Amino acid sequence: MTTSQTTTQNLLLLPGDGIGTEVMTEVENLIKWLERNSGAKFSIETDLVGGAAYDQHGVAITDAAMAKAEAADAIIFGAIGGPKWDGVPYEHRPEAGLLRLRKDLDLFANLRPAICYSALAEASSLKRELVEGLDILIVRELTGGTYFGEPKEIVTLENGQKRAVDTTVYTTFEIERIAAMAFELARKRGGKVHSAEKRNVMRTGVLWHEVVTATHAAKGEGIELHHILADNCAMQLIREPKQFDVIVCDNLFGDMLSDEAAMMTGSLGMLPSASLGMPDPETGKRKAMYEPVHGSAPDIAGQGKANPIATIGSFAMALRYSLGKAKDADLIDNAIAATLERGLRTADIMQPNMREVSTSEMGAAIIEEMDRLSA
Ligand code: NAD
Predict the structure, then answer these.
(1) Residue 294 in contact with ligand 1 by CB distance below 6 A
(2) What's the pLDDT score for residue 1?
């Protein structure tokens, strides 16, 4: 047994609102399975976030929950929000809980895999042969660039016209750390990184290109690096998505490219994500939060219709990137693929001649496949 299998690891579960609580139940079942079957030991904390925290404490996340988040080896987040909290003060709206977690933990890297399971290739808007077996990872810088740069304002000019400004700012340090992470991740995958920017028209693109090139020379040994203009990258993703392995880009381009890549894989209910911080200088551990891309889905909440695969996939990412359990992560990913091959579908990915199942039936079927695959 490796050290990571015998050490107790601290998980913080933040189910949140709406379907967040329903899909998190399926993750809890997986955790129990791993404890029973793979020698893993977890210490589990749970807390409120979003509207649920506001109802109980008047804030979207408490300081006590933040302290648990600081101490956790990995945070698994469900979803937040819903019409019930439309009228709460802006600073306490459910999203404030998520934003505080990202900001206080300095989660600067957002990882969005786009994986197309062969059983779901028909659900993609692209042809089967283009997407079947697709496995790409978009690494998006999450705390800098156009969404945070100052000045950011709308001013009224003397002639009565208005003038709006967003500022795109990046420093060497910010680019270096996201590039280094992309190389580190590519080393565990296909060994190829595309760096997407707009150096032809943006000064931040020129610096991005320069720093990524220098970081590659320093930390990218053995990794194939390609520079690509972000607009061309958007086109190439549609033309021939399987040419990509890891794509690294800034906050704005990453927002667009990750949603574009996501749509090749079928449904929102299938999309996991991770947000990672800097490694701790003493322990080397990164702060990390794992969450499905989808929201709290108020339209189906409480009906057992939510697809739990995005959250289960997010938990598998936690095993892979924070908990040193790549084998268990592979087992979960293979069990998801096998369950889909068996023809089980939640309503959002339902296809002709398949069997529609509930959230808990999908979770249980994935666990059955884990039993079978590990027997
Ligand atoms: P949403 O992602 O909640 O839902 C969009 C559509 O996709 C809905 O029809 C929903 O039923 C469906 N869907 C989403 N996840 C699904 C799943 N796992 N299984 C099956 N179907 C699924 O987005 P929305 O409707 O725009 O927002 C609802 C609430 O969620 C809002 O309050 C919004 O602010 C919040 N939100 C939260 C997050 C987050 O927690 N990270 C992200 C997006 C939206």
Answers:
(1) yes
(2) 39
Report strand pairing: 355-356 vs 272-279.
unpaired
The second-level CATH assignment, the architecture, of 135-263 is 3-Layer(aba) Sandwich (3.40)
Atom of ligand 1 nearest to the CA of 347: 20
**HSE-CB of 119 using CA atoms within 13 angstroms:** 19
Residue 122 has a pLDDT of: 84
Residue identifier of the C-alpha nearest atom 13 of ligand 1: 297
**Does 1-108+266-375 match 135-263 in CATH topology?**
yes
Q: CATH says 1-108+266-375 is which class?
A: alpha beta
Sheet order of strands, 286-292 included:
41-46, 8-16, 74-79, 286-292, 272-279, 109-115, 135-141, 246-249, 192-197, 224-229
- Please tell me the distance between residue 295's alpha carbon and the centre of ligand 1 in angstroms: 3
pLDDT average per 10 residues of sequence, the chain (375 residues): 65 98 98 94 97 98 98 97 95 94 95 92 88 94 93 96 97 98 95 98 98 98 98 97 98 94 84 94 92 96 97 97 94 97 94 96 98 95
Task: With residue 8 as reference, give the H or E element that holds it.
Answer: strand 8-16
Q: Provide long-range contacts, Cβ within 8 A and 24+ apart, for 234-243.
A: 234/260, 237/261, 237/264, 238/126, 240/130, 241/114, 241/126, 241/130, 241/131, 241/134, 241/136, 242/130, 242/131, 242/133, 242/134, 242/136
Token reading at 362: 């999908």
In this prediction, residue 6 carries a pLDDT of 63
Domain definitions of the chain by residue range: 1-108+266-375, 135-263
* Distance of CA 152 from the midpoint of ligand 1 (Å): 28
Distance 25 CA to ligand 1 centre (A): 18
Q: How far is CA 367 from the centre of its chain?
A: 22
